[in-house]
Amino acid sequence: MSVNKVILIGNVGQDPEVKHLDKDVTVARFPLATSESYTAKNGEKVTATEWHNIVVWRGLAKVVEQYVHKGDKLYLEGRIRTRSWDDKDGNKRYTTEINVDNMEMLTPKGQSTGAQQTSAPSNQQAASVSEPDFSSSDEDDLPF
């Protein structure tokens, strides 16, 4: 048995980039920052920030498009996925992403730091959808 499960709580680094693909498939991408603080040997407090590439599909991507903005705090559950592609110069490129299948918005209503402050109805504060089956998806070849 193997498990690929990621849980993150962090802040959105920029407004999501949303694309509408064929057959009413929506994908949203954005960076998420998580931070850890610790005290170094010299007594200095150190904060280390890790950036994660977040990918959200279909119905949950539509929720992201409407309600998620730069600075918002999110709880995300998903899976780590590494993709590769050839860039325009023929070089092999790699990216590691978190494919999200569950999201909860943690920023209190009305306190979004995004330019388009929108209050989500309470029934949409937590949303989840099933992740598509990537084994037969042409979307795998997209370098974004």
UniProtKB/TrEMBL annotation:
GO terms for cellular component: nucleoid. Residues 109-128 have a biased composition (Polar residues). It comes from Mangrovibacterium marinum. Residues 100-144 are annotated as: Disordered. A motif (Important for interaction with partner proteins) lies at residues 139-144. It holds the Pfam family SSB. HAMAP family: SSB. This is Single-stranded DNA-binding protein. Plays an important role in DNA replication, recombination and repair. Binds to ssDNA and to an array of partner proteins to recruit them to their sites of action during DNA metabolism.
